[in-house]
């Protein structure tokens, strides 16, 4: 049942990618809903990314009454309503997702009566992407209405394979010129529209939030800020590029933005809290008369003159050219320092969210540049929203799994509150916040805890995909390099996924959950989309569904890990116990006893130590962490950050995406040739032919390098034998075990033999060389006896 509570929630929680063609796109996250306001003549397409998620629609007229007759199916005509079973089931489940959905719907005035008359749209009527849209259901809006779209369903069980997955909504607006801004992040205190080719000034108090929105896409906006108190005393104290770059440790503007921008007094003026684009210019000049005159456009309107006029009431002296933060301006910097630009990356509705750290006078422009790609050759508007200081917005940056989709913002894991209670040293990793190191420990102490005792790390950013169906085994046998047919139920294998050239798309572990049910755990969120596309292209009857939101996990690693988990993990008779759980196997059990929290425990890890991973629903994450943490106190358990994890995995010779492998590196060159059983796996698989054409003698090799001396080397440093380079450093670290600098390196086969003497080039590669000796991998525990113990 819905509870009677009102929440000041935005209509749509996700960006409206309104293009200049009058098409808006929206995402409905799993177990959530969005609300859209539509007008007569608009057309609506619904999409299910995996082709399996049902949509439930609530249609409301201007008075808030159910009005299904206002939304007409082009194939079925008027639509009848029935009970929103999936929504009701999710709410009745009494998990956090159900409570959040109930609050969301109550905030929009959606009652149980409305839910009893919902429109059901089955997955068979939903296309999976825009390209297949003509084959899917199209809805026409007969009159003005509010449309609530719900992607609902029960939370997935730990051994289940049916997660709720996202929906996408595309609206083709009858009035293509109509602008649809993204829904406010909260109730705005102030909103102002900056028309194309103009600038405006606005005041912001300390703690308030500034959202700068690209209305139509590909439109740059220069930003200035001045200390209001200093101005009142006759001092112009504004943003300072040199101070910002110096404190940030950079000597050039970069394609991106800093986390905070400083004034000439070396103190922060604004913090960047959210960014949906990731590509901006920091502190080149706003466009100015000289730029246009040098290009032959005399008298062209420009941002600097617009700023001078807008700032005149504040007695701020005019300038020929203003240094500014150039939001949405796409610049790149060559190693030599040359700066060039191209069309902006920003889409309609993209934004940057700032927070003022002092009282400010701000100025924003809608750049008038129409003589080059800076604004996509066409200047449009900028919109600014200011929110009161009492609101809270989480820090997040955007990424896109595929180029055309809406941005995805950084998430927190189910363990986030426990992690942040121990550290504020957080970094973004593949769309999640993770700890880099813990206060009071540090990477060295965390490393030693894992090697000597036991440590726990949040590894939730790993992506999980449920692969099921009558062709699941055959499909994975084709898509993965490993021989999946050999896997027993309850067994895990480490594998690569390659494209036709043999280059690696990803690596990961495949869990055999049943005869035709598998769980693929990997690093790259794109891998799930790639698997789905391959299944469709080659005609396999298989389902590939993203279960990452339903499965969060910690790794418990170290020589005491089994002893610790044996005290708290209960296993039914049909499952192996913690004492008998074999390497690269898993079990389904509970925490604390037969009535405890459902969990999956796998004997896997990324440290080279004896270790396990514990998998659970995010609602149970804090309880799982607490139990592990409390039970681990007698063992002097430590939290483990990603800095220490990097030291551990390099010592263990374990590879990492975009370091040891990339789409141009095959598994042999990445040092995991054992995942490609050419002789024992007779079935064809993607990339096999390309790898078979390559002679083993011609392949580069992944080797270890032990450096002499204490100077560090870094990813990308070239390795030399004599004058010329023969390889590259892929990963490097200080090894507490060896007391030396070590590196993983990819080198030409002629120089891969142990005891070969090589040099790492620093400076220009010739002026400074750091000598080292090739060694066999791994550096630590060469026979891997500890991890197998």
UniProtKB/TrEMBL annotation:
Provide the Aminomethyltransferase C-terminal domain boundaries: 701-781
Q: Source taxonomy lineage?
A: Bacteria, Pseudomonadati, Pseudomonadota, Gammaproteobacteria, Oceanospirillales
Q: What is this protein called?
A: DUF1989 domain-containing protein
InterPro entries registered for this protein in UniProt = DUF1989, GcvT/YgfZ/DmdA, GcvT/YgfZ_C, GcvT_C, GCVT_N, TrmE/GcvT-like
Signal sequence bounds: none
At the top level of its lineage, which domain of life is listed?
A: Bacteria
Enumerate the spans annotated as DUF1989 domain.
193-361
Keyword annotations for this protein, in alphabetical order, are:
Aminotransferase, Transferase
Q: Name one Pfam family in it.
A: GCV_T_C
């Amino acid at each position: 049942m819905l509870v009677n509570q009102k929440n000041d929630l935005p209509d749509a929680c996700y960006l409206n990618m309104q293009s200049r063609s009058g098409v808006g796109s929206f995402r409905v996250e799993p177990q959530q809903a969005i609300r859209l306001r539509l007008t007569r003549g608009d057309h609506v397409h619904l999409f299910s990314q995996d082709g399996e998620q049902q949509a439930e629609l609530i249609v409301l007229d201007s008075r808030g009454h159910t009005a299904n007759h206002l939304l007409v199916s082009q194939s079925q005509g008027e639509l009848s309503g029935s009970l929103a079973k999936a929504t009701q089931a999710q709410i009745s489940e009494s998990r956090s997702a159900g409570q959040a959905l109930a609050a969301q719907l109550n905030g929009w005035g959606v009652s149980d009566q409305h839910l009893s008359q919902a429109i059901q749209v089955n997955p068979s009527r939903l296309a999976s992407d825009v390209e297949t849209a003509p084959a899917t259901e199209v809805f026409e809006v007969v009159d003005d209405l509010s449309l609530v779209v719900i992607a609902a369903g029960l939370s997935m069980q730990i051994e289940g394979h049916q997660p709720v997955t996202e929906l996408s909504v595309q609206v083709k607006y009858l009035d293509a010129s109509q602008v649809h801004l993204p829904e406010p992040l909260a109730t705005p205190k102030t909103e102002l529209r900056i028309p194309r080719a103009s600038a405006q000034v606005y005041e912001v108090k300390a703690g308030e939030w500034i959202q700068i929105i690209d209305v139509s896409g590909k439109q740059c906006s220069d930003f200035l800020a001045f200390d209001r108190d200093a101005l009142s005393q006759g001092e112009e104290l504004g943003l300072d590029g040199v101070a910002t770059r110096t404190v940030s440790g950079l000597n050039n503007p970069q394609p991106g933005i800093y986390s905070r921008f400083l004034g000439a007094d070396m103190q922060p003026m604004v913090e960047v809290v959210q960014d949906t684009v990731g590509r901006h210019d920091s502190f080149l000049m706003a466009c100015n008369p000289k730029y246009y005159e040098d290009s032959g456009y005399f008298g062209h309107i420009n941002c600097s003159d617009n700023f001078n006029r807008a700032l005149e009431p504040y007695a701020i002296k005019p300038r020929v050219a203003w240094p500014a933060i150039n939001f949405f301006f796409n610049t790149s910097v060559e190693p030599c320092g040359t700066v060039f630009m191209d069309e902006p990356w920003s889409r309609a509705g993209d934004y940057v969210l700032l927070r003022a750290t002092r009282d400010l006078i701000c100025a924003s422009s809608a750049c008038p540049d129409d003589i080059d790609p800076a604004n996509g050759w066409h200047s449009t508007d900028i919109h600014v929203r200011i929110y009161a200081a009492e609101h809270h917005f989480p820090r997040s940056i955007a990424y896109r799994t595929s180029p055309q989709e809406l941005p995805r913002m950084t998430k927190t894991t189910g363990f986030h509150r426990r992690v942040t209670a121990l550290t504020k040293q957080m970094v973004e990793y593949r769309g999640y916040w993770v700890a880099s190191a813990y206060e009071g420990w540090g990477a060295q102490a965390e490393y030693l805890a894992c090697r000597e005792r036991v440590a726990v790390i949040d590894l939730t950013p790993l992506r999980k995909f449920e692969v099921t169906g009558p062709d699941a085994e055959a499909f994975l046998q084709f898509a993965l390099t490993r021989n999946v047919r050999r896997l027993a139920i309850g067994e895990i294998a480490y594998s690569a996924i390659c494209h036709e050239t043999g280059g690696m798309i990803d690596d990961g572990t495949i869990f055999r959950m049943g005869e035709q049910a598998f769980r693929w755990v990997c690093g790259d969120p794109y891998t799930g989309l790639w698997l789905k596309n391959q299944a469709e292209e080659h005609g396999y009857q298989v389902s590939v569904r993203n279960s990452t939101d339903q499965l969060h996990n910690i790794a418990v690693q170290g020589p005491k890990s089994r002893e610790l988990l044996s005290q708290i993990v209960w296993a039914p008779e049909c499952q192996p116990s913690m004492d008998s759980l074999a390497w690269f196997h898993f079990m389904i059990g509970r925490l604390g006893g037969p009535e405890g929290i459902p969990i999956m425990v796998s004997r896997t890890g990324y440290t080279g130590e004896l270790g396990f991973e514990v998998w659970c629903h995010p609602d149970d994450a804090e309880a799982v962490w607490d139990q592990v943490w409390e039970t681990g106190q007698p063992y002097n358990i430590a939290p483990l950050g990603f800095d220490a994890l990097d030291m551990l995995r390099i010592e263990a010779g374990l590879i990492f995406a975009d370091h040891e492998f990339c789409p141009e590196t095959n598994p042999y060159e990445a040092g995991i040739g054992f995942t490609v059983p050419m002789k024992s796996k007779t079935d064809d698989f993607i990339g096999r032919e390309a790898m078979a054409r390559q002679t083993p003698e011609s392949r580069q090799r992944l080797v270890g390098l032990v450096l002499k001396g204490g100077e560090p080397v870094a990813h990308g440093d070239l390795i030399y034998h004599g004058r010329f380079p023969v390889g590259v450093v892929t990963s490097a670290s200080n090894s507490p075990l060896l007391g030396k600098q070590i590196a993983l390196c990819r080198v030409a086969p002629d120089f891969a033999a142990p005891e070969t003497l090589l040099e790492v080039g620093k400076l220009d590669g010739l002026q400074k060389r750091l000598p080292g000796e090739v060694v066999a991998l791994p550096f630590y525990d060469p026979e891997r006896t500890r991890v197998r113990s």
